[in-house]
Amino acid sequence: MTYVVFNMKSIAQRLDEFFRRLLAAPACGSADEAFALLGRVLIEVEDELSGIAFDAGYPFDDGRMYPPRTDAER
Which domain of life does the UniProt lineage start with (predicted)? Predict the structure, then answer.
């Protein structure tokens, strides 16, 4: 999947939009709901504003922000 975006935003601008959308979202009733909300909102923001296609391999160097994963807990 390739995205063509003519108005790509910086990571700082995308983070601002991510936080704006999280604050506007309804409250979550559980930790699982909150975790799912974080992932969904971040993917939406990055799909719309980054211009970088989602890579299921979660690379750390493609310029896109990726949601947290349960298998990456520290």
Answer: Bacteria
